[in-house]
């Protein structure tokens, strides 16, 4: 099984810039999208019903915001939108599908901004989401199954995950308390950062670059897009890569797909 995850920064815009062509060429079995910002009726047939794919769209109740989606080659056996938190279940932040022995989720964790309600929302989301991860791991493993939570986690965990980490220590996405929370996901809940496990010594590989300045050209990015998996499936991950565009003008999002091949 090969899984890709990418924040598309608006699915309608990405479709016009190259997402459709990328989807037609990918070898992935599952594609997780975040920040789709679209309703089903707003999407062209080649986006919402591409040949060979089953599409699960979970838009936000607030139109034009957030939104997550799953594209799967196999028809999901079950789909869950949200994770049981009333504030966020209609916010287009989480969708999970059962595909045989593995469940795959698309997550868009709030981005936050220090000193604003956006940061408070992010903190509330994290507080609600960790208990779900603990509970869900226990459930899937009791069934002899696995869970992979893919998406834009909006936190760079280590200094190696952020090019300009020194200048971002007081900014949302690299705050000590955010990084400590992500450590709890790995240490307390027992999930595995699959890309970091496969590439333990590498800087990055970054998956998001600001459109401002020459961040992309200089590879001054952040690694905030993760595949976070229960240990059983993480242990059979064979290869990870970030599908970084060859040039700035060939990008169809400010994020790049993060792709992992599992011998599952």
Automatic annotation (TrEMBL):
Binding annotation for Mg(2+): 7, 35, 152, 154, 254-255
Write down the required cofactor(s). Mg(2+); Mn(2+)
| Domain Endonuclease/exonuclease/phosphatase as annotated: residue spans | 5-255
> Coiled-coil annotation: which residues?
none
Q: Location of site Transition state stabilizer?
A: 154
Q: Does the keyword Glycoprotein apply?
A: no
Entry's Gene3D superfamilies? Endonuclease/exonuclease/phosphatase
Q: Where is this site: Important for catalytic activity?
A: 225
* InterPro entries attached to this UniProt entry: AP_endonuc_1, Endo/exonu/phosph_ase_sf, Endo/exonuclease/phosphatase, ExoIII-like
* Any one of the GO BP annotations: DNA repair
Active site per the UniProt annotation: 108, 152 (proton donor/acceptor), 255 (proton acceptor)
Q: Name one GO molecular function term.
A: metal ion binding
**Site (Interaction with DNA substrate): residue numbering on this chain:** 255
| Alphabetically ordered keywords of this record | Hydrolase, Magnesium, Manganese, Metal-binding
PROSITE patterns xref list: AP_NUCLEASE_F1_4
One short Pfam family name for this protein? Exo_endo_phos
Question: Any note on cofactor binding?
Answer: Probably binds two magnesium or manganese ions per subunit.
Manganese keyword on record: yes
- Entry protein name: Exodeoxyribonuclease III
Taxonomic lineage is: Bacteria, Bacillati, Actinomycetota, Actinomycetes, Streptosporangiales
